[in-house]
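Inverse folding, one chain.
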């Protein structure tokens, strides 16, 4: 029985922090495969994605091209443009029902789990691998202790609904790179070296992504 993890996100754009999360999960839990799932139009995000899904998929493909254990998910056609995690999971699980399934997620996204579509169902379907993220509020850190605290709050909240959640925290440093930071750097014309893989940096430059809108 293999071990497979789903790694969903907007990846707008994908960066080295995402790759570190995936590699840590592989090393810590002996995963056989990580399926990367760029969300077409995630219902749980408060902001709109900056780049269309096809080009975000192409950036992910470029970022993971040298890893046989990292694969890009098949593209699902949804005329509504919506993408629900539970539907994605059930579809991918059907391709290998005997595997042990995991879900790689950042602690900030994990905190929104109670608001997810069919959250009571998706919460129990897989084993959650939660990555620490740096916090933006004053006097907060992104260390493992802080991450455990925030995760425990969600687990206790779901427990009141009699929904057990299986999870572990990835043993990795808090990541100081974010997609929003990279988009800001692009708007300011700053170099993206060492923030994203070189193949992704080349793609962003060639496609002129995340540039300021021309003034009229």
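Residues assigned per position:
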């Amino acid at each position: 029985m293999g071990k497979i993890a789903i790694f969903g996100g907007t990846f707008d754009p994908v960066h080295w922090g995402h790759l570190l999360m995936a590699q840590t999960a592989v090393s810590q839990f002996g995963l056989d495969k990580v399926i990367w799932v760029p969300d077409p139009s995630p219902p749980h995000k408060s902001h709109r994605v900056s780049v269309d899904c096809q080009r975000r998929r192409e950036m992910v493909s470029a970022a993971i091209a040298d890893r046989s254990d990292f694969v890009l998910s098949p593209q699902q056609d949804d005329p509504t443009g919506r993408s629900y995690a539970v539907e994605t999971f059930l579809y991918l699980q059907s391709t290998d029902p005997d595997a042990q399934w995991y879900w790689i997620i950042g602690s900030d996204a994990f905190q929104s789990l109670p608001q997810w579509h069919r959250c009571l169902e998706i919460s129990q379907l897989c084993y959650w691998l939660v990555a620490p993220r740096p916090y933006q509020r004053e006097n907060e850190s992104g260390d493992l202790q802080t991450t455990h605290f925030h995760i425990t709050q969600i687990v206790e909240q779901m427990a009141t609904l009699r929904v057990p959640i299986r999870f572990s925290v990835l043993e990795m440093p808090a990541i100081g790179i974010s997609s929003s930071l990279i988009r800001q750097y692009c708007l300011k014309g700053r170099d993206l070296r060492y923030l994203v893989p070189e193949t992704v940096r080349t793609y962003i430059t060639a496609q002129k992504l995340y540039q300021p809108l021309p003034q009229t």
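The longest helix spans residues 144-159. The helical segments are 16-29, 53-63, 85-95, 107-110, 119-125, 144-159, 179-187, 198-207.
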